[in-house]
Amino acid sequence: MRHPILLSVALLGSFALAACDKSGDAQVERALQDVNVVDETNLNDVMLTVADPNEAVNYFSRASTNDPGRIDLMRGLAKSLVRARRPADAVTAWSAVVDHDDSTLNDKIDLADALIRTNDWDKAEAVLDTIPPTYETFKRYRLEAMVADSNEEWANADSFYETAVGLTTSPAGVYNNWGFSKLTRGDYAAAERMFTAALRNDSDLFTAKNNLVLARGAQRNYDLPVVPMDQVERAQLLHTLALTAIKQNDLTIGRGLLKEAIDTHPQHFEAAVRAMRALEDNVTN
């Protein structure tokens, strides 16, 4: 009579061990999935920051095809297309993200950014208009300022730029854009102040240095500003200042600045040499 009982106990033990094995396998599988998710997240971050933009586009394109509907991969593709300087394709990608059930207001802002990069200002404005005014982010107001600039709504542009400056700890780029807006309007003194503010926040921003020279030159101030610059930058800024002087028919000053630019550059400065030849030919003729 004992044999059946022992057999039953043995079978129950086997089933229990099998159940333990299956439970253990499931735990291992879940753990591996968690690790894969972490690894994938890290890889996504790398692709969005340090990877070659075109390589990132290929990565997110493949990943989205293999796992369609995942909004994080769709966003990764859209961002990578912007980095790869393919704004038209980025508009298509961001539009798909915005149409997704899990999209956010930030996705609309990124769509507006892509539209601006394609020079489609009207559609960008229409997208921004769908965002509640209470949703205040740095990028939203920076784009609003740019749209206002495109419409020559100067008071609105100034207001948006001012708000954007208050929403970031790195306002150099905003000040530079704001200064260029002032430059476009012919308000050269205000533009000079904005470019100076940009350089106070980022002394390496060469675009702001060049724009500052343009603003000063437009006021017939042909002295280089006191800002940090290396020898190549100094030559390039002298070249910009020279062209500004020539454009305003201050030819003698322009010639002197071109000569200084050529002498300052540590290598052959072809652009300045061409400008000097053109100036001399024009004067001769």
User: What does the largest sheet look like?
Assistant: none
Which structural class do you get from the secondary structure elements? mainly alpha
Approximately how much beta-strand content do the residues carry? Answer: under 5%
Order of helices and strands: HHHHHHHHHHHHHH
Q: Return the average pLDDT rounded to an integer.
A: 88
- Rough outline: elongated
Question: How many helices?
Answer: 14
CATH fold node name of the domain at 40-103: Serine Threonine Protein Phosphatase 5, Tetratricopeptide repeat
Which range best describes the helical content: under 10%, 10-25%, 25-40%, 40-55%, 55-70% or over 70%?
over 70%
- Poorly predicted regions: 1-22, 28-38
CATH class of the domain at 40-103: Mainly Alpha
Please provide the count of β strands. 0
Cα separation of the termini? 126 Å
Integer-rounded radius of gyration? 30 Å
Q: Which CATH-level-2 architecture of the domain at 40-103?
A: Alpha Horseshoe
For this entry, what is the oligomeric state of its chains?
single chain
